[in-house]
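Notes on consecutive records. When two proteins share a document, each keeps its own sequence and its own token line. Never mix them. Below: protein one.
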Amino acid sequence: MVTVRHTKIIATIGPASSAPHILDELIAAGVDIVRLNFSHGTQADHAEKFRMIREAAKRANRHIAILQDLSGPKIRIGRLADGKPIVLEPGASLVIAIGDDVGGPGRVFTTYAELALKVSKGDRLLIDDGKLELEVVSASPAEIHTRVIDGGELGEHKGINAPHVPLRSEMTEKDRRDLAFGLALGVDMIALSFVQAADDITRARAVMVEAGHPKVPIIAKLERPEAIDHLDEILDASDAVMVARGDLGLEIPLERVPRVQKEILRQAHARGVPAIVATQVLESMRLEPRPTRAEASDAAGAVDSGADAIMLSGETATGRYPVRSVEVLDAIIRDAESMPLPWAVVEGQQASVGHTRALSEAAVTLARRSGAHAIVAVTREGQTARLLSAARPPAIILAATDNEEVARRLNLWRGVVPMVCDLRGDIEEVISRVVDGAVKRSKAPDNATLVFVNTAADLDRGGSNFVRIRRV
């Protein structure tokens, strides 16, 4: 029986999960990718977390990927006196001034100067993920006068959402510095926040090429209405997408979020682009030891819709139960995966283009019809494994590569279990080594069927394109 989970788990690291023993427990619980959120913390903080994650992965003998999530052009409240929150009463006035001064009751600051130029009387401003709502009364280039609609505590550095107000699209200086820093560290993938069009991805990729890291995957975070309008071009330009439901649910009507999520997953799958579902997946587990029934259903629904990965944010970064959150999500995913994927998800891909994709689809068909325990792919750069994943086989995909970086990156693709193997030698030697590793990694029972696939480019010499069935 296959015990490997297909849908991947991403966990955000923060104060609740930075200790080495907690990292060990998170990996043991099933984390595949660890997220470093560069909206918080210093570069030195992240460098230390990076080091600890690599050490924990080594102790576990796992190829754990590290995801760098850049801040993006997020609009935020500035500093407050003594760092203490202020209370906003409904009906009260609040001035948001442009600058980097320290705010207090009645007057706060933001460094995002364009906000004052783009809002108009009657516009809504949502703060702290929509917990607070303001209405614009008047605006000048220097400040915005607002009236509090929904009040509460306002802390420093809380995010401001201005629905229908376009953000600047060029990469911020902070993101440029952080990206260069992350690439130098050796992060395995990059998430771009507030992507609005394909140009945002193209600009980031140019920076990465210039830095000598052209192959690091770029994940486009879809959290603005403009991103939904330009979904086709973003899917074509990015390596993966993330349905970032927190900001998205503030920028578009809340009732549209489930439908938009399903449409993003459908279109991403049609193009073979991995899709991540994120934000408030098990939100109640920040404080409680178990999720609500609705949260469990939401996570299972993401699996049924064909998500490649599900991401935990506050649950593991600042919550009381970081390890338990991963364990619960793992159990929900496994139960959801016990049922076949809807046929529309399995058959939703575009027509084959190229011999590698055709070969991959043939291997998946063979695996389905033979009831194979696993598909074993020799894949130096990961392309064959990615194409196999896009076809959504019921069997797991054991991806044998001789490149540790490729192995870590393959954690993003649904159903792919990376293995690092020696691919030198003639075909039969390589196949023998890879099959031995596959049997151990997948815990294959006696007489299990493996489907073996490779392309000529993935072997040193004497290679050819072939699909084989082997019993072990």
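Protein two starts on the next line and is unrelated to protein one.
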Amino acid sequence: MTPFLTRRTLLTERQEALLEEIRAALAALRTALHRFGVDVAPGDMRILDDTITHLDELFLLVVAGEYNSGKSSFINALLGAPVVAEGVTPTTDRITILRYGDTPGETVSSAFLVEHRFPAEVLRRMAIVDTPGTNAIIRRHEELTHNFIPRADLVLFVTSAGQPFSASERAFLELIRDWGKKVVLIINKADLLDDAGLAEVVAFVGRHAEDLFGMRPRIFPVSARLARQARDTDDQALWEASRFPAVEQYIVTTLDEEERVRLKLLSPLGVARRLAERYLLAVEDRLSALREDVAAIDNIERQLDLFRRDLTEDFERHRAEVANILNEFELRGIRFFDETIRVSNLFNLVRHQQEISEAFARDIVADVPQQIEARLQALIDWMVEKNLRMWQGVMDYLRRERAVQQRSGLIGEIGATFEYNRAALIESVAREAEKVIATYDREAEAQALTAEVQAAIAGSTLVGAGAVGIGTLLVLLLHGAMLDVTGVLVAGLLAVGGLYLIPNKRRQIKRQFHQRVADLHETLAETMERQFNTECDRMITRIRDAIEPYTRFVYAQHELLLTTQRDLSDTEAEISRLQAEIERR
């Protein structure tokens, strides 16, 4: 049979354009949901795909309601023949799509879907769907009906005059409303009540329906049983008593070609709006969680920046103290040379070099190496302690995040995988931080850092480190400063007699000593700065590497969700525009 909406005689040029715009909006929505990923709820993508697939199908009139409300008898009365099974127990266990056919026949499409052909004139204009009753003991029947509702272009909801608009019926009507479907209410078994009682039921149903839908839908009280009898006996009076002519007139006349096209165009937009709104909320929930994560990561980065700034400031303080120690050493050395390198002391300069060297070591070098080593060691210990506190800060945040995860749980079907991945990453990073803290050995860390500083000093000054410590290295360097210049002095004095050159030589030696100490200070300062910057970078990199999987997940998800949010918002706006235009027609 030629699809309803592809018959060019039935569609105006603008209607065809609207159909293509609807198709494009649904495709855009599908792309956005695909980007949302595996967290799209089971069934939602199938519903959207079905909606796209059935855009060109014949108008679909779905008859729904609770079991024993008389759905099947209503359909048989409408078709004028016992086409579908009736009974007081749930008899419809499959979705039955009734289509026009010159010869009655049945095609089983799947375990839960059957197509029935029947030569009823009304089926030339639309397909009628008989659905399993809801609120029955067989929950699979209700699930089938729920899943089929999104395909409906119009829903005839059948309720019983004996128990109209029950709580379970209201819940099912909410589902129909949420999918954006137009609903017509059929109050069956009207013959069970007198006119006053029926009027009361109609008013009751009307009030509750208006409260639910925000407007009063069409309501038709009928007796499908009397209508069937009237058709079978050709009894016009009984036909009028069944009140069926009004609903038949609505289906045949009011649902004319133009109205069916209008509802057919609105139907997929209702489905699309529901899905767009649903996943916009899900995206906003995710973004809310990720905003907290981004803020936390930014906070960790600020703490790392503060960590580096604190280390730099403390390093500058320690370096200044080392400079002061060397300056005082130089001043003592200058005084030593002034007092030692004199004409009156020439004999001692020539004969007692060992004693002079020992005096320099005892009085001038004194505990300078130990002072410098103490400054370096204090900086190393502080750096190690600061590193541990930084790890503990990361751990405290992750511990709080895990507590929040445990309290809030997952957010249900939508977003479950996202929440699981996020929680798993937080847990993984937390375990890594716990492991670092549990195995953090301050002494070992300090020893390792001391060894690296020692090696750096030795390498920069071309002094073999061997197994000696920083203090011993500094002793060698400081003694070297004195021996270099005094050795030159003695050699010069011995070469020329030196008696008249001693004052000049003393000035020369003092300049050389000053330069030697300055070079030592510069080398030591540069080596310290380079090494401590390297260690600072290493500490920060280790923390960043530990949280990097979590950070990468957060920023990647944040970017993806912002894109998805924009696309869903644009699609929702386009859906609203199309709905408004169709409603105006």
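For the record: The radius of gyration is 45 Å.
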